[in-house]
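Form P-L/3: holo structure prediction, ligand guanosine-5'-diphosphate.
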Amino acid sequence: MKVAALAGGVGGAKLVDGLAQALSADDLTVVVNTGDDFTHYGLQICPDLDTVCYALAGLANPETGWGRAGESWNVLENLAQLGGPDWFRLGDRDLATHLERTRRLAAGDRLSRITADFCAAWGIGCKVLPMSDDPVPTIVCTEEGELSFQEYFVARKCEPRITGFRFEGAAKARPAAGLLEALAQAEAIVLCPSNPWVSIDPILNVPGVWDALLGRVVIAVSPIIAGQAVKGPAAKMYRELGIQPTAYAVAKHYRGLMSGFVLDTLDTDLTSDMAWPYRVTDTIMNDRGDRLRLAEVVLEFAAGLRGSGDH
Ligand code: GDP
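OUTPUT (holo model):
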């Protein structure tokens, strides 16, 4: 089955790794959020793209879910000693990615081309696409004013209260080359268990993406389990926007788009409210085996929905 997966960073990367284990490389395209991208020390940093690629390449740090395994921090420590900012953690190995990407962007290459070449170098078989080659920075609107995403997420540790989000430049952004074709060819589209507000919504706001998903088999996997995010501010964001953070709220978030929803066994009590086809299963991915098992549930669910025409 040909699958396209929409993903952010840590949560998305785990399911993407499961899908890559379950599918042949030709059958999987991953579309990654670039709303978190930013420039730091003059380097172009793409946190979600790198998290997804490191996970697929088996290079990810298993403890954090982001960054590289076996990382060292010589450059950052020496920068800090000189008074340079060290709030964004950049390891030595990781820095090679940002240096080479920045060099190639400055030479006129597109992010999607650079990503494809990095994937080849890292031995990644499936296709990984940034959502756009154009910048679409996520702006977090808070009670303290607007903040860039990394300012909010890393520097301010998600403390300011949220009032909304803006995806700057989204209206004029073009989807990365091959993205709409991959969505059109996909027999199932997976919205990974990523933050709906700041990981999946930016992708859905790239012109053409939402329309490409209408009437298709779209399976969303909840990042909210028992009212909480496994990691990160998703539940806090729902609360501050006046919505009770539940898997049900995530399902409603994707209404109009989604044909099937996967929620955790801890949320079985919510199924009576589900107005969509659903699957209940263990969705916490602690190891690679969990990732594969969840991916297999998602694929089997999608195949069933395709067969029934119930989407
Ligand atoms: P970020 O850009 O690094 O924040 O990455 P994502 O948006 O992809 O991931 C954050 C979301 O992933 C959070 O809302 C978490 O609840 C969710 N998440 C992380 N690990 C898991 C997991 O093992 N299972 C599920 N269902 N969700 C997860």
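COMMENT: The pocket of guanosine-5'-diphosphate is lined by residues 8-12, 14, 48, 51, 193-195, 199, 221-223, 225, 229-232, 234, 283-285 (CB under 6 Å).
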